[in-house]
Amino acid sequence: MASKSDALVDGGQPGSCRSFLGGYESRMVLVTSLVISILAFDRLSTGYIGPYLIKAFQLTNTELGALYSIQAVAVAVFGYFFGRVSDATGRRKNLLVPMLVIAAICSLGSLLVQTYLMLMVLRLAMGVAMGGISPITQSILSSQSTPSRMGLNIGIQTLLMFLVSQMLGPIIFTRLAASWGWQAAYLASALPFLLMALAVVWTVRDSSPATGPSPATVPAPSEEDPASADQQKTVVRNVWLCIGISSCFMLWLVVHSTFLPLFLVQVRGYSPTEAGAMLSVLGVAGCVGGLGLPMLSDHIGRRAALVVGMALSLVVPLTALFWTGPGWTLSVLFFLGWLSVGTLPIYAVVVPGESVCPTKVAATIALTIGAGEVIGGVAGPLLAGQLADSLGLASLFWFTCGAALTCLVLVMALEQPRERPK
Known about the structure:
- By secondary structure, the chain is mostly helical.
- The chain has 18 helices and no strands.
């Protein structure tokens, strides 16, 4: 018999979400959401204070991008490593707290940085800590959420992440850097990381009835049982599809985030301030889509919500290529297209977390997110830059159209497991 959570890959289920007020689950969702929010807050800091770093260290644009790329590689590699460790030991809380403390120490370490090489090493160390924080935190949320509230819980997490990292982040980082220097901007994450470490100690449990048995007690699937073999094939298929979706969607996200402002200025002829005003709606769209699409997936199913989101993702590149209307209509269309970022927690956390057994959740989520980090965060900008130099900026949006269509095809191939592996 299929479990309630698994039915959501293809179709929604009836049932009401319990009140979010009160109870352990609500506190757990709040704390893990704030952890991910502070993580994203720090991850984006280098971009926000990039002009100050270029001035302080006389960097090229390539050297500035390398700070993000080396951190992305560390997040991907060590995310999978620490995900495997947390799955094997079941001690997610005992791993998460030290990682948060290490992240705080790395933030404080910016006071000692004197050269670009030192800054590179520091951000690499921060990437190692972040690699552990993200999958462990996501696996806690996935394994300890009531199935009928999974979409709501991950939506709340995504909403807070966008509010903190993409709406408050640019304001806080740039003002700190302007007033007290770039070190002050990096220091802004230190106290929040420490506070989150204390919050995890006081609030989060290492396990719950939803986390399942220890790895040693999990029976291996029977090769003689055709149903079990088919189930395993479906699980593996879903995981690989989510990895492919993550890779293509992160290409879409990173290329647009990096080059859309430049396209509006150089090709469409808007001033930088006009382009900035048009794109200011993206943070709001991220909040709305980040909450709305996961919540919608609780009712219409994970795959159906992903289809809606990936169809919306086509709006952004097509608008950039073909729309010639007034600026306010561009903002409206970009807002609609950017709602698609709400698919990220569904394909990266919810579907993998509901497909595999509880003892493999952290490593599976880390693998899915890590693929997006490496392909989207490292290879994506390099390939996009070469395309822009060779064929012009417009070629990038044909490229992202292809990435969005690929995501849509992969989403349609997702299958519903008969039941979640035990």
